Amino acid sequence: MMKLIIDFAYTGSVNVTESNALKVFMAADYLCFEDLVQICCNFFEKLLCPDNCIGIWQFTKNYHVPKLQLKAFQYVLGHFEQVVFGEEFLQLSAQDVSDIISRDNLNVRREAVVFEAIIRWITHEPQEREGYACLLLPKVRLSMMATEYIQSHVLFNKLVPDNLMYQAMVSEVIECKDRIVGRPRLPSAILLAIGGLNSRRDLPNVIEAFDIRANRWMNITNLSERPRAYHGAAYLGGYVYCVGGFARVFIATNSVRRFDLSTRTWQEVAPMHYRRRSVCVTVLNGCIYAMGGSDGHTRLSSAEFYQPETNQWLEIASMHKQRSRASCTALNGKIYICGGYDGNECLQTAECYNPETNQWTLISPMRSRRCGLGVIAYNNHVYAVGGSDGTAFLQTAEVYNPHTNNWRNVSSMMTPRCNFGIDVVEDQLFVVGGDNSFNTTTSKVEYYDSETNVWSQACDMDVGRSALSCCVLSGLPNMADYTIPRDL
C-alpha cells in the first residue's frame, strides 16, 4: 500500500482494483491523501451492485465520505427488490432495516415486498430477532397492500398473532380500507404528458405528471411557456426537450425548447434544419433524433439528430418513406419507426435505422395500417399500438421481434385511440389520452403488462387531449417535486 501511495504522490496515477480498493482507501484516508480517497470513492460508485451496496454503505459510516455514503444508500433504496435477496441484507442491524424501510423513496412496486423482507430478515436468526417485529412491522404501509394479500399472508404469519398491537392495526386497515388514505412510496420514475389539443382543437397548454404509486396526476404547467401540439418530447441529461410541432398558430415549427427540471424554467436551444409537425422523436446514445413529420406542405422523409454538448442538429440519411403521424422508438442501439401517413394513405410499413452505418432498412410491415399510432420499446420488443387505418380508430396492438423480423398480435386496448402519448413506466406500457373518435379527445389512461397480456385502467388525466407527447423522468434528485405531496 505504501508503495502504491508513494507512486501516486509522484506520478498522480494509481491502479485501483477490486482486490486492493478497500486497503488503498483506508491507507489514503489515514494519510489524508484526499485525491486518492476520491479516486477510490469513484471506483466504489462504479462497483455498486445489489450484492455489495450494503457493505459499501456500512463501511462508509466509519469515514467522512458523505457523497459515497449517500450514493450507496440511494442504491440500496433504488434496488431494494434485488438487495433483499442478498446475504448482506441479512446481516443488517434492526435499526438499519428500520431506516431503510421507513423511507418514502424506497423503490418497491408492491408494498408486500417490504413485509416479505422483514420476515426474511427475522427468520434468518429468529430467536434473536423476533423481538424486533414490533419495531419493523408497523413500518409496512398496510393501506397500500391488497386486502386479499393482507388476509392470506399477513394475518396468518406466525409473527403477527404474537403482536397484539400490530394485529389490531391490520384489522383496522382491513375494516376501513376504503376510508384510510395511505402514504404511498415515491415512484422511481414519473410520466409526463405534455401539450396537445382539446376537443375544440384549442391548445390548452397543460403539462401533467403521473405519480404511479399514488395513481394520480399532478398539474405542473408553466404558464410562461408556449403551448404545443403534434410535437415530440424527450428526457435527456436532466432536461425535457420539446421538439417541433406547432404553437398557437397552426404552423409547423423547427424550434426546440428544453425544460430544466431543477429550476422549472424553459430555454430555447438550436432549431432543427426542417420545420416538423407530427414529428417522431426518440433518444439514442445521448442524442435526440427527430424524423419525418410535415412542414405544412409536404410529408417528410428526412431525419436529423441533436447533440446537447455542441447544441447542434446534424442531418442523417433519409428514410425510405415519407412519414407524418408515425411513431418511433430506440432498441438495442437502433431506431425503429412504424406507420404514419404519406399524404395518400395510412402506412403499414416500418423501417430501422443503424447509426453505425447511417442506413435505413425496411423491416417486415405491421399487420395493420396505422397512422397516429404509438410505438415503444418494451421487454426487448417493439410494440405498435392503436392509431387509425384510414377508416376507423384502432384499439389493437402488435409486437415486433427484431430477431425473427416478425409481428404478432397482443391484447387490444380497452379504448380505441389515435394521436396519443405512449411510454413505459416501471415495466408497464402506458397509453395516455388521444382522439377516441372524430374530434373527440379522451383523458383516459391505461397500461399493459406483457407478463399477463392484460390492459388495465389507470387514473384519468385532468384534461382530455390528443396530439400530446409523453416522456419518462427517472433518477431525479428532486423527484418529490413532481409527485403528489406525501404530507397532506
Secondary structure: helix percent: 10-25%
Structural class category: alpha+beta
- Please work out how many helical segments DSSP would assign: 13
Shape: globular
Mean pLDDT score: 92
Strand fraction equals: 25-35%
Computed over alpha carbons, the radius of gyration is 26 Å
Low-confidence stretches: none
E-strand count: 26
CA distance, first residue to last residue? 54 Å
The CATH architecture of the largest domain can be given as 6 Propeller
Pfam family, one: BACK
Keywords: Kelch repeat, Repeat
Domain BACK: 53-155
Protein name: Kelch-like protein 10
Tell me briefly what this model is.
The protein has helices spanning 2-11, 21-30, 34-47, 53-60, 66-78, 80-83, 87-90, 94-101, 112-124, 126-129, 133-136, 147-154, 164-175; strands at 189-194, 207-211, 216-219, 232-236, 239-243, 256-260, 265-269, 280-284, 287-291, 303-307, 312-316, 327-331, 334-338, 350-354, 359-363, 374-378, 381-385, 397-401, 406-410, 421-425, 428-432, 435-437, 440-441, 445-449, 454-458, 469-474. With 488 residues, it is an alpha+beta fold.
Write up this protein:
The protein has two domains: 2-139, Serine Threonine Protein Phosphatase 5, Tetratricopeptide repeat (Alpha Horseshoe), CATH 1.25.40; 189-482, Kelch-type beta propeller (Neuraminidase), CATH 2.120.10. It contains 13 helices and 26 strands. It has helices at residues 2-11, 21-30, 34-47, 53-60, 66-78, 80-83, 87-90, 94-101, 112-124, 126-129, 133-136, 147-154, 164-175, and strands spanning 189-194, 207-211, 216-219, 232-236, 239-243, 256-260, 265-269, 280-284, 287-291, 303-307, 312-316, 327-331, 334-338, 350-354, 359-363, 374-378, 381-385, 397-401, 406-410, 421-425, 428-432, 435-437, 440-441, 445-449, 454-458, 469-474. The strands form seven sheets. Strands 3-2-1-26 form a four-stranded antiparallel β-sheet, with no helix packed on it. A hairpin with a 2-residue loop joins strand 20 (421-425) and strand 21. Helix 4 (53-60) runs antiparallel to helix 5 (66-78). The protein is globular. This is Kelch-like protein 10.
